[in-house]
Amino acid sequence: MKQNNNKYPGSGSLANRQGRQNGFLRSKNHSRTSTTGYVIGVDGGGTKTIAALANLQGKILKMGKSGASSPRNVGIEKTARNVAKAVKKVLPKERRKVLSIFVGLPAVQEEFESKVMEIKKIISRQVKGKLAVGSDQLVAFRSGTDSKDGIVLIAGTGCVAHGWKGKKEHKSSGWGWLADEGSGFWIGQRVFQAAFRDFDGRGPKTSLKVPIKKIYAIYAQNFVKEVSSLSIICDQRARKGDKVSKLILTEAGRELAESVKTVVKKLNLAKNAFPLVLIGSVLKSKIVLEQLKRGVKKYYPKVQFVQPEKEPVTGAVKLAIEQIRS
Asked: Are 22 and 136 in a shared domain?
């Protein structure tokens, strides 16, 4: 696989570039200082899509939910339909007062940038309004900070570290379940391996037992989801003192730290304080989180760890507002 040393365009550049092309950044009927009207932010994902209607001060007024909107998982057509469905649920009565819509989608920068106009076209058939489509990673980052420069680490079923500095971007990990070291799937895979080694007698004893029936069921069903769910069991066993489980989670934290450190180096962020926004179910593990923080802080003491209390869709709302004010 080709080494991931590519650099994407500037922060939010995909959405900004398309916005300029479509006359999106400034409405003819509303000045930059207008305080009336609405925006809609959309956070797309592999299992659900969340839309939020907000005023121009960023206060969320209404939220709506629909099905998955990951182009990689469900395709372009279904992604666009589910986005439109979520947006329709939050549209105000005076629809013309919606000044901008920002949609963050998985893999749209990495794999589907050439399909963005097609996605927008399908959404626009059902929902009218000025529309921008960008990365869900940017949405996640902005849910935790107002800074334009910094890094987001997402560690759930998969994982990715994505950073921005000025007009530069860099991403580490996020290659899918065949890699994504430190992710929920990666941890679940290690649980399987440890259980098999113990069962065969070729590895240390562990309380990580996986029933044979469950193994066959996992292979037959949605194995990515099922394997990832074992990361929760791993954390439970670790908290009860299982040494193998602790080692797996410690290694996961170290791997996530390496992804972050790679982005810091590529963007030369170390000289100044920068936010590191932490998102994802894997980071609920105290062992993983502490190992990650220790691994990053050791080399970059100015890092500011941020664990957002608000929904990621708030990042999409911020971006929608910025499109008007740019």
From this structure: yes
